[in-house]
Design goal:
Layout lengths: L1 H10 L11 E3 L12 E3 L14 E3 L1 H7 L1 H23 L5 H4 L17 H30 L1 H21 L4 H12 L4 H12 L3 H28 L8 H19 L9 H19 L4 H11 L11 H18 L6 H16 L8 H10 L4 H40 L5 H18 L1 H4 L1 H8 L5 H29 L2 H19 L30 H9 L5 H14 L16 H30 L4 H13 L3 H21 L9 H11 L14 H35 L8
Antiparallel strand pairs: 1-2, 2-3
Helix pairs in contact: 1-10, 2-3, 3-6, 3-8, 3-9, 3-10, 5-6, 5-7, 5-8, 5-20, 6-7, 6-8, 6-10, 8-9, 8-20, 9-15, 9-16, 11-12, 13-19, 13-20, 13-21, 14-15, 14-16, 16-17, 16-21, 19-20, 20-21, 24-28
């Protein structure tokens, strides 16, 4: 412990301690230590001199301005959570040996009136009871006095009590008494969860941050066990001194770097609400009103302001479900490890003088490293919650916990105690455990969702209390039950409680913000809906492939170009939707469209003739073409291909597939090449515009000839052949 503390004090001056880089403290104002006023240096002007005006920030405000301040504060807090977990569990692998008199020179001489199982679980129960009591009290206090003072008190007092526990190592009841008092000051985890709720406003970021607090806590629990295993040769209680050193280092770093968050500031939340207002305004301006616009906006972002009041009925539903979940989880860990695996794979062999399938070291490593498996769950939990909702993940986790526990119980009791089945037992445990912890990881985000900002410490404290009361009392009571009946009865009890927890949590699925996200219709993008001032019916006709004069489509797209919006792509529809009369009408409408397209090309050529720079004309045309959505163009091309082939089949061209070459030539003859360049350039713009005019004029002439031919036939029939026909 002493080298760790010396290391910290030696290297701390070398750390670049600039939580407010380029800031200077203001001497004229007397403020509290954690709210010292800081001044951001002015930006140098053109003459190289600093501006006189400065921006005065508190440390709490600086968290939202300077990323380094927030990153360091979050890091030292997570380090404190991990150190606290290490210190709390640093003797956990040694509990069975400590509770077995004469098993080791450091074992307690007596654990009366408890037998092995009850004594093994009573030791950690004392600490967890203390944590459970402290979590609510300290969490509520932190809502009033701040998170930082409470975190520092917990870390500093735990440092001292770790040394006191070492001094009480000879007496079972004295050790358990100090262990309970130490638990009263081991509430760093709920404080950290409330801290994350204060700092982060984005729901995904907050879920990840709260989950990572749990991950650091679980890593610390594993780290404590690892320290106990590595220091086993030094004694069963020596790890307590290492834990005291880690707590001392963590306390010093938190005193220096931890910043009290401003729970009323949250500028990023205001920015998000501004974005939501912009989306709502866009929906309203796009002629979308009422529930549809609200649904589209809600689908764009699920960020909501914290509720003003706490729903106590909902709160206790979550807490009671979390408590039942923790009780049920005890059947999986630790009951499936100790006493189930410990007895089946070690003790039964040891009593008979045989070589156990599982060694003591193997048991220690398995029971210690299982906690690390929460890390992948914490990483993927935001994506799981986004798909299923926090309540959905919770219910699923309850069910999976019961299923995995039953499988492990079957493997350990029904299958032979061989190395192969022992390996299967460990594989199932390590594979199933990450899925089961989703139910525990979901509780923090659910409580944050329903909590007002002034109640986060209280609700997260209740959660931690439920967790620790469950972890404290349940294994001990189950140990008593196992000693009185059998291990199988105790584990089956936990399976039933896990299923009961799933039933308790089912109502949460139907609560807004907790259950699976609602599937609402996405707001169409600009290329698939009308904009401000546009005729929605006209836009819908364009998108359905119904006839709209190209001149009107051009007017719509010209306005969209001015607004920088996505252009409309006219669709072709299906050939089967067109009757003979529709095709005749199409022919008539096409002539006016051809003439408009000719006129449009002539305007561009006229701009060139007036002396406008070719590059400017090219940029104007290319910019318009680039506002077409590639996916829309691809879909329109596919519709065109189907329409064209259906037309050929319906109009006598049934043998076109007999000669692909002839068909291709027919297409090339009907549609001669205009250009093979992808964009307009100053070199090709004039030739391309003129060639396109030539092609369009050809089609106009064909329509004129067709119209003249049809008119002449009608005249011939009307005059019975007496009138001259002019072609």
């Amino acid at each position: 412990s002493l080298p760790l503390i010396c290391f910290t004090f030696y290297f701390l001056p070398l750390v670049r301690f600039d939580p407010l880089k380029s800031m200077a403290f203001e001497d004229e104002k007397a403020v509290s230590a954690d709210e010292e006023a800081a001044v951001v240096s002015g930006v140098a002007d053109d003459d190289g001199e600093d501006e006189d005006e400065t921006l005065k920030l508190t440390l709490s405000q600086a968290m939202y301005v300077n990323p380094k301040v927030r990153a360091r504060s979050l890091f030292v807090l997570r380090l404190g959570v991990m150190a606290d977990a290490v210190n709390t569990t640093i003797l956990q692998p040694n509990y069975p040996i400590m509770a077995t008199p004469n098993a080791h020179p450091d074992s307690f001489e007596s654990t009366s009136p408890f037998d092995f199982s009850a004594a093994t679980y009573f030791i950690p129960m004392t600490a967890l009871l203390g944590v459970g009591i402290a979590s609510v009290i300290i969490g509520t206090i932190s809502d009033k006095v701040g998170r930082r003072p409470c975190v520092l008190v917990c870390l500093c007092v735990s440092t001292v009590l770790s040394i006191v526990k070492y001094l009480c190592r000879r007496n079972f009841w004295a050790f358990c008494g100090v262990n309970f008092i130490n638990g009263l000051f081991s509430a760093t985890t709920p404080l950290a969860m409330a801290y994350m709720g204060d700092v982060f406003t984005d729901k995904d970021e907050k879920t990840m941050a709260i989950g990572m607090v749990g991950a650091y806590n679980m890593v610390g629990m594993s780290g404590g066990g690892i320290c106990a295993i590595l220091l086993e040769s030094q004694g069963l209680f020596i790890p307590l001194l290492l834990g005291a050193g880690l707590m001392a280092v963590s306390s010093i770093l938190n005193i220096i770097f931890l910043v009290e968050p401003n729970r009323t500031l949250a500028p990023s939340l205001a920015h998000q609400y501004a974005q939501v207002d912009d989306k709502r305004m866009e929906a309203v301006e796009s002629n979308q009103t009422g529930d549809q616009a609200a649904a589209w906006v809600e689908n764009e972002t699920d960020e909501k302001a914290p509720p003003e009041t706490l729903d106590n009925c909902l709160l206790w539903n979550i807490i009671f479900g979390a408590f039942a979940d923790n009780v049920g989880t005890s059947g999986l860990n630790p009951m499936c490890l100790s006493p189930l695996a410990f007895i089946q794979y070690y003790r039964n062999f040891w009593v008979l003088g045989l070589t156990p399938v599982m060694s003591l070291n193997a048991y220690k490593w398995i029971s210690t490293l299982i906690a690390i498996m929460i890390i992948p769950s914490a990483v993927v939990s935001p994506q799981v919650f986004k798909k299923m909702g926090a309540a959905g993940a919770c219910v699923s986790g309850n069910i999976v916990t019961a299923a995995v526990t039953v499988v492990l119980l079957y493997v350990a009791t029904a299958a032979p105690a061989t190395s192969g089945w022992f390996g299967a037992f460990v594989a199932i445990l390590y594979t199933g455990f990450p899925v089961t912890v989703f139910s525990q990881l979901s509780t923090g985000p659910m409580l944050d969702t329903i909590s007002p900002a002034s109640k986060r410490g209280y609700t997260q404290g209740l959660n931690t209390s439920a967790l620790n009361f469950g972890q404290a009392l349940t294994p001990w009571l189950l140990g008593l039950l196992a000693d009185a009946t059998s291990t199988s009865v105790a584990i089956w009890t936990c399976v039933g409680v896990s299923l009961f927890a799933a039933v308790v949590n089912v109502p949460l699925l139907f609560r807004d913000g907790l259950g699976p996200p609602k599937k609402v219709k996405q707001m169409p993008d600009e290329g698939h809906r009308g904009l401000v001032g546009e005729d929605d019916e006209l836009v819908e006709k364009v998108l359905r492939g119904e006839y709209v004069p190209v001149s009107m489509v051009d007017q719509l797209n010209e306005e969209r170009i001015k607004l920088g919006k996505q252009l409309l792509v006219q669709r072709y529809g299906q050939y089967s939707d067109n009757t003979t009369g529709d095709l005749e009408k199409l022919r008539q409408n096409a002539k006016s469209d051809f003439k408009h397209l000719l006129r449009r090309k002539e305007l561009f050529v006229g701009d060139l003739n007036k002396g406008e720079a070719r590059a400017a004309v090219c940029e104007r045309i290319n910019a318009a073409m680039n506002r077409l959505d590639e996916n829309d163009i691809t879909e329109a091309n596919q519709e065109l291909g189907v329409w064209f082939t259906d037309y050929l089949k319906d109009n006598g061209y049934r043998d076109v597939h007999m000669s692909a070459t002839a068909t291709k030539q027919m297409i090339m003859s009907a549609f001669p090449s205009i250009t093979q360049e992808k964009e307009f350039t100053p070199e090709n713009v004039e030739a391309t515009l003129l060639d396109s005019q030539r092609v369009y004029r050809k089609f106009v002439c064909l329509e004129d000839q067709e119209e003249l031919y049809t008119k002449s036939i009608r005249q011939l029939i009307a005059s019975k052949g007496s009138a001259p026909i002019v072609y």
